[in-house]
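Re-run requested by the PI after the first attempt was lost when the workstation crashed. Everything re-entered from the original request form. Ligand of interest: adenosine-5'-diphosphate.
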Amino acid sequence: MSAILSTIPSAGIDSHVGVAPAISISGVNKFYGGFHALRDINLEIESKKIVVICGPSGSGKSTLIRCINHLEQHDSGQIHVNGLELTRRAADVEKVRRQLGMVFQSFNLFPHMTVLDNCTFALKLALGTPAKAAEGIARAYLEKVNVLEQAGKYPMQLSGGQQQRVAIARALCLEPRIMLFDEPTSALDPESVGAVLRIMESLAASGITMVCVTHEMGFARRVADRCVFMEKGEIVEHAPAERFFTSPKSERLKAFLDQVL
Ligand code: ADP
Ligand code: MG
């Protein structure tokens, strides 16, 4: 399994990669009605780095990650993905989304489509990939996450861990430069957690940029380059992974780590 995903192709779209950071968030604020969900967020993520975001429930982690692919709109500030600014223009959103794959806590597979169709659907729709080629790509990624034998089944017929691995394969089919994970293992039984984390670990080693909201601190310590701690809509601490765990600066992060470690 260690060799899986070692061959994520580098997408050919952007000549600016290597110059701009993969993700640049500057002065971002987000409100839900009168509720201030993100407060002046500044964060730069370098290409090919693995960043883990953690923090208590309700601290704005999902909101932040959802703003990066415009599932939520930020109200002020700028978000750039590989040098492309995420504005409200549909064409810009489309260009940015093309760079991103997203995996959710709740899998979000299409229930009425087989595993294979879940994977080929976006390829055919978004990229216009011919059916036969799409199937070949889908099968290759399903094999890489060890669920190829489930290709003809419907999501409901799979375990949570299998569904999540399908969701990862589906995202990878579009060959994103950046993967966003929002608590991908929180809904899984302990055995499935390990299988999904191993896939993510292998993916991390493949040279993709990853932003993971997770409370799997073992994973964070092993895999993350940098860790971010959020509370009440703010980034409280952001540090290289080693320093984050061994010498947290803020009392709030110390207390959080005491709880989760
Ligand atoms: P986390 O992922 O860290 O648990 P979220 O980003 O989901 O936090 O939520 C941050 C805060 O914003 C929470 O107080 C939550 O209740 C609120 N919130 C999230 N989504 C919405 C929404 N669609 N409408 C109103 N409030 C929301
Ligand atoms: Mg969340």
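Saved to the shared folder this time. The longest strand covers residues 35-45.
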